[in-house]
Design goal:
single chain, 358 residues, alpha/beta, 16% strand
Length: 358
């Protein structure tokens, strides 16, 4: 608990005590089992609720889509959907954020092969994703007989505090809060597997996109139950993405104003960087996919190639796929279909092989 409390105490100013922050992150890495440990929640429940958008931009077409979804819900024209809810084992100052939320996509029995283990994948969308991002992937996995839980990440969609229009509390120059958000996301992933086990599921995977891939990697490094891992955009160092990435220029500005260097920022985010747990990730058997984009300005290319180099040197069983686009154009036609093919075909094959091995 002392380690967790220190993170909370450090959640204020950017400049703070730099040496103390770096030392704290080194301690997080050294005691990561404690930091990412948790007690299984006791209030798992399924809520039937209309799917809403919770947009993170004010483009006219987005606002029109949100308005139409709300109209359909109020008029009873849309069907309620099942959502897994529980109180996160990690608490923050924001009650709405502490109520974990995940859209539940159970695979139809007709799609499950006789004698095959019950399989499920946890899906973690990108930073500032709206509430329907990646839902199509979940339906695709259902066609393979694989159930899916599409998680709302900390500070996203229904978990977003009222004062926010975007999910800025998940990643910012507030190092303590950003670190705590990663811890909460990792613990939420692991808690979801606890719930799935009560339903008889025995084989698990995780798919993370962008920020979600960081959360997914750290979770997989600390939980051997995750045997299928798909990283849709990946990086070794959290701090380097914050410093170099186009989408986090405002975060870098806060650090630069405090007189910090890139290396110092890297050290301040050591506790939530995939590179810190690379050896640990490689020690347990799993099948992994890494998708990166050639013209990515948010997850710079050299950081994605660094992941592949580390996987290769450590003998990780992985597949690499490349998209000829940028970070956000991955979600545009035609690249989204190519990305969907890479993710879908990998998950199908990896789970099929996992079932064959038992």
């Amino acid at each position: 608990m002392a380690l967790v409390e220190e993170v909370g105490d450090s959640a204020g100013a950017v400049s703070g005590d730099l040496d103390r922050m770096i030392a704290l992150n080194q301690e997080i890495v050294r005691r990561s089992d404690d930091f990412f440990g948790y007690e299984t929640p006791t209030d798992f429940r399924i809520e039937q609720r209309h799917q809403l958008l919770f947009p993170t931009n004010v483009r006219p077409e987005t606002l029109a889509q949100e308005a139409e979804m709300r109209r359909q819900a109020e008029a009873g024209e849309s069907e309620p959907a099942p959502f897994l809810r529980f109180t996160s084992a990690v608490r923050t100052p924001y009650p709405e954020n502490d109520q974990m939320n995940a859209r539940w996509y159970p695979a139809p029995e007709s799609k499950r092969r006789p004698g095959r283990p019950k399989q499920a994948i946890i899906v973690m969308p990108q930073w500032n994703a709206d509430a329907i991002s990646h839902n199509v992937l979940c339906r695709l996995f259902n066609r393979f007989g694989i159930s899916a839980l599409r998680l709302s990440q900390p500070y996203h969609d229904i978990r977003r505090p009222q004062e926010l229009e975007r999910s800025d509390y998940a990643v910012s120059a507030n190092v303590g809060r950003t670190t705590a958000a990663c811890r909460q996301a990792v613990v939420d992933i692991r808690s979801c597997m606890d719930w799935l086990e009560t339903l008889g599921y025995t084989q698990f995977g995780v798919l993370g996109t962008s920020l979600g891939s960081c959360y997914a990697f750290v979770a997989a490094a600390h939980d051997p139950r995750l045997r299928v891992c798909a990283f849709n955009h990946a990086s070794t160092w959290f701090g380097d993405v914050a410093w170099e990435g186009q989408s986090t220029r405002h975060v870098r500005a806060g650090f630069a104003e405090a007189g910090l260097t890139q290396d110092q920022v890297r050290q301040m985010f050591l506790g939530i960087s995939p590179m810190s747990y690379m050896e640990r990730f490689a020690t347990t058997p799993k099948r992994s996919l890494v998708v990166h984009a050639t013209y990515d300005l948010t997850f710079p290319l050299h950081l994605s190639l660094d992941v592949l180099d580390n996987f290769q040197r450590r003998g990780v069983d992985y597949v690499s796929k490349v998209l000829p686009c940028g970070h956000y154009t991955t979600g545009e036609t035609p690249y989204k279909y190519l990305d969907g093919w890479y993710l879908g075909s990998f998950v199908y094959q990896a789970f099929r092989d996992l079932a064959a091995r038992g």
